[in-house]
Amino acid sequence: MKISKTVSSLMFLPFLLFFILFWMVPFLYGLYVSFHSWTVSGGNNGFVGLDNYIRILSPGNMYHDSFMNALGNTLYFVVISLVPLVVFALLLALLIENIPGKLKVFFRTVFFISYAVSVTAVSAIFKWLFTGNGGYINNVLEGFGLDSIGWLNNQPYAWIAVLAATVWWTIGYNMILFVNALDEVDASLYEAASLDGANAWERFWNVTFPSIKGVFVFVTIITVIASFNLYGQTLLITEGGPARSTMSLTMIIQNTIFSQNNLGMGSAMAILMGIIMVFITLVQFLIGFRKDDNA
Amino acid sequence: MKQTKTQKVILVIIASIISLIFIFPLFWMFFTSFKGMAESISSARLLPRNWTTGNFVELFTVDAASAPIIRWLFNTAFISIGGTLLVIVTNTLAAYSIARLNLPAKRLFMFIIVASMTVPGIVIVFPRYFNFRDMGLLDTFAPLILPYAASTLGVFLIYSFLRNFPRDLEEAAYIDGANQLQILRHVVFPSIKPVIATLSVITFILIYNDFLWPLLVTNSAEMRTVTVGIANLVQGANFVNPGKMMASTLIATVPALLIFIFANRYFVKGVNSTGLK
Hints:
The structure holds two protein chains of two kinds.
Chain A: H1 5-34, E1 36-39, E2 43-47, H2 51-57, H3 62-97, H4 101-112, H5 119-130, H6 136-143, H7 157-183, H8 187-195, H9 200-228, H10 232-238, H11 249-259, H12 263-294
Antiparallel strand pairs in A: 1-2
Helix pairs in contact in A: 1-12, 3-4, 3-7, 3-9, 3-11, 5-7, 5-10, 7-9, 7-10, 8-9, 9-12, 11-12
Chain B: H1 5-32, H2 37-42, H3 54-60, H4 69-100, H5 106-117, H6 122-134, H7 141-145, H8 153-163, H9 168-175, H10 180-191, H11 193-209, H12 212-217, H13 226-234, H14 242-262, H15 264-273
Helix pairs in contact in B: 3-14, 4-8, 4-11, 9-10, 11-15, 13-14
């Protein structure tokens, strides 16, 4: 087929325009701003090189303190959310896989349905379930004659509320990824394992898990990325509290830009957060594949 | 794997108990929306003692100006559908051009597309807000729809699909005298429908669920999306009446739940093909 370069380019052009305008330009703009002293109200106050980055990374100023506090909080959430969102999702998928026909579709839909609820509706529901004064859970506790708990004003309870909301909201998504992967495992492998007298755990560990390992690594990676982007739940349910202990990186970047009026610093924080995320993803990727080679 | 009847019954019972936990927050939202304020902040009962539609009435009368939920639903539907269509059209054209046509520097473009997918969204979102501010386009539909078309995921998905797809039919159509657009419309598009369906579902959910971006670029009550509008009701001085809060959450959530239940098959497939969250 002889196709003119003009026709080919014209077809690519609409996407290219959108990509340049809404990805490339903001990307380069953010990078450019991060090397400048730049306020939201006053604009560019001159080139400062790596100063913004250096201040974020060296102790003794408020930008360092807020960034490191938020990084610690975010990493903490990534860690505590990993087992519920990945391992429990896999357990749910295994449970569903062993349930016959129509019931399987029913339970799959029920476990996945909360994903259709938006983050703000999820937060609204969980905030009213957990809130200290007039919240439903405390009403139930008091109904049983127990002491109510200041869920959103004390740790670890505030994290429990955020974690519960997040797990309820997104575990179904990971579960579906696992269900789809389990559906593709070669059934003859199970029969062979059964003939060898393998018990349920041996079948899982020697047949199922190796077959879905790629998906397991993938789910782990996307879960870490999603947890790193923690924003709506902590903005709405805990409002960053108590004592800034649930301030996430995205919240602190937004604060730095809009409340502290420091776009240059906020842009540098966003780029640092991006670099950290890419680095962590890369490490998971490498670990996931190296294990594959040994297997 | 053979299971005994008893084992199956036990598994179904376990799944049923877990289902109740999953469904409980939705039930609580539903029943609380029919409780009056005094009851909703003090009662440990799930079902209302006194059923009332007062919360809904208030939402559509007293709060109609500050919290126009129906308008929010319209905005969300409009930008989700509009954004999805825009993504499908631009991404299909671009992927077709890279995979099949004579696009100059296509390898460079493909490299940029894949490289851009590794850059986390947080790096883009704030500078993009200031770009729109400088163009004077905040609080319009433009920032709510147009940026999604810069998504490279769809180009990548369609390109990968086309690369593994035989081009015999397209060549036959070409010999018959069809031009590239006709071939795309009548030959290629029908065969890439599965990946288009998947991409549509993913893009729709992404736009529908987006929170930080529409929060940044909208100011007025009537330009809010459902997600952002509800957020305003959760924060600060509005956080007083769970009954009314749940009434608005219920109205905001029911359309999505219905779409989700009816299109469940596509959602399940959609999740399978990417890892977008």
